[in-house]
């Protein structure tokens, strides 16, 4: 049946041509935009995923800039601390030279002052974009990553860079909680009193038939049988005289009856003592096997913690010497800081030393070779920390005692500068590693986005040509279908 009102063939040909034109338009859009999924209507789920990933890429690009800024800041700090280490090493060389008596210590001190000023200049200049990691104690956070959880939650993570204060500031003693219980002194005064042991020649000793041997700090006096005649008092007198004849520094002996009092004024050095009669232990009695060192000490707790701002103050005579701890410091740092403060004062006859006792507690030892002075220690929280190079300004080698004190103090300062250099080097290496990872991660995300939404141009080109052919055929098919009703006219001729 043919109809001039309804041309079914033309309708089919028209719908086919519309479908071809739609596919052709889509393919042309893919080619022109380069994307298979350009809008949400192309593929809603893939488009949504791609947009989330694109947002992450933008975030990681900002993180890369943050890491570059942080890397530059830490690099400046590392270079500065390495320079400071070199300058402190030069100062140590000057201090070592000042140990000699036949040098011009005044000129050496001038050189040390110049190097110290240069260190201060380096510390002040070690900033990048206004941020100086060698001043203050607050940590600096460098934005390092965006972490997306499985539920879509995004959190930022950072690399924490700890500052290392290498200023020479003295800090401020606080008025907070008392910390005096964390430090105790061995005596209320520090004096030049000698420490002693007593050697007693026993009453049953046969002086003329016995041999005697006394060893003090590695030096020995001995008497063969028959060298001493008389009673126990005579033996004690002979032993005392022999000890004094050794000429040991700080060691003297005195006698009272059968007792020999052996005295030592050696600072920071215990002296061992032993005594034998006829090669055995019997016949002579010692009150102790060691003469204690001459020094009073401040012993710090080996269980308490040290917090930033904790200050400790040692009083010697009428003057007080203070050190305020910085972040992550220990009682070793406190003891060495107090030592530097005391040494800088240049007190006549006062020398200091830092060591550990038999229980592992840190001690500040103070020796006095002059008149007795009051000795006390207090502590308080809530202060402002001293600089990491506290004590550098107090180094004075113009005297032999100052040169000796400076030698141990400069080692402490060098160690702090080395620790800071090593820490900044580690931070810089970590930031560089993270920056490299973020760069690779960003490239991977971009590649992933491309695989989701980018058009396959080879396929799109082939499809375009096929659709263009189909379009031409569809047009011809529609033309043929539209001409079919005209054949009905022949029935009316």
Automatic annotation (TrEMBL):
The record's subcellular locations are: Secreted; Bacterial flagellum
An example Gene Ontology molecular-function term: structural molecule activity
The Flagellin C-terminal domain covers 408-492
Give a GO cellular-component term. bacterial-type flagellum
InterPro entries named among the record's database cross-references: Flagellin, Flagellin_C, Flagellin_N
Residue ranges of domain Flagellin N-terminal in the record: 4-137
Q: Which UniProt keywords apply?
A: Bacterial flagellum, Cell projection, Cilium, Flagellum, Secreted
Q: What is its main location?
A: secreted
> Member of which family?
Belongs to the bacterial flagellin family.
Its biological purpose is as follows: Flagellin is the subunit protein which polymerizes to form the filaments of bacterial flagella.
Name of the protein: Flagellin
């Amino acid at each position: 049946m043919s109809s001039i009102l309804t041309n079914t063939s033309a309708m089919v040909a028209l719908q086919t041509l519309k479908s071809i034109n739609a596919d052709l338009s889509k393919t042309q859009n893919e080619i022109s935009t380069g994307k298979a999924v350009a809008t949400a209507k192309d593929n809603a789920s893939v488009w949504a995923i791609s947009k989330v990933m694109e947002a992450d890429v933008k975030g990681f690009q900002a993180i890369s800039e943050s890491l570059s800024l942080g890397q530059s800041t830490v690099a400046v700090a590392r270079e500065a601390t390495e320079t400071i280490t070199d300058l402190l090493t030069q100062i140590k060389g000057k201090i070592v030279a000042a140990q000699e008596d036949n040098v011009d210590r005044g000129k050496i001190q001038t050189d040390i002052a110049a190097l110290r000023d240069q260190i201060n200049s380096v510390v002040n200049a070690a900033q990048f974009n206004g941020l100086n990691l060698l001043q203050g104690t607050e940590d600096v956070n460098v934005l390092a990553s965006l972490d997306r959880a499985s539920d879509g939650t995004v959190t930022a993570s950072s690399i924490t860079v700890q500052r290392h204060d290498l200023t020479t500031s003295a800090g401020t003693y606080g008025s907070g909680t008392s910390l005096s219980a964390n430090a105790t002194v061995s005596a209320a005064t520090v004096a030049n009193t000698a420490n002693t042991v007593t050697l007693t020649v026993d009453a049953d000793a046969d002086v003329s038939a016995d041999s005697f041997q006394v060893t003090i700090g590695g030096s020995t006096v001995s008497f063969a049988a028959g060298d001493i005649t008389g009673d126990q008092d005579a033996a004690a007198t002979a032993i005392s005289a022999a000890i004094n004849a050794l000429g040991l520094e700080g060691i003297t002996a005195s006698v009272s009856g059968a007792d020999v009092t052996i005295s030592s004024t050696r600072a920071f050095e215990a002296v061992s003592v032993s005594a034998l009669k006829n090669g055995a232990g019997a016949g002579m009695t010692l009150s102790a096997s060691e003469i204690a060192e001459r020094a009073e000490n401040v012993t710090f707790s080996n269980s308490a913690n040290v917090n930033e701002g904790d200050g400790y103050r040692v009083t010697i005579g009428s003057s007080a010497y203070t050190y305020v701890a910085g972040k992550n410091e220990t009682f070793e740092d406190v003891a060495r800081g107090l030592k530097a403060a005391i040494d800088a004062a240049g007190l006549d006859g006062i020398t200091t030393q830092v060591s550990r006792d038999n229980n592992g507690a840190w001690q500040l030892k103070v020796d006095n070779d002059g008149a007795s002075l009051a000795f006390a220690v207090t502590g308080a929280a809530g202060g402002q920390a001293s600089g990491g190079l506290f004590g550098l300004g107090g180094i004075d080698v113009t005297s032999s005692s100052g040169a000796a004190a400076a030698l141990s103090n400069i080692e402490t300062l060098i160690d702090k500068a080395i620790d800071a250099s090593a820490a900044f080097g580690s931070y810089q290496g970590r930031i560089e590693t993270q920056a490299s990872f973020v760069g690779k991660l960003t490239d991977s995300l971009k590649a992933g986005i491309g695989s989701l939404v980018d058009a396959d141009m080879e396929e799109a080109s082939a499809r375009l040509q096929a659709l263009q052919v189909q379009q031409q055929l569809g047009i011809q098919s529609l033309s043929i279908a539209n001409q079919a009703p005209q054949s009905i006219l022949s029935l009316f001729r």
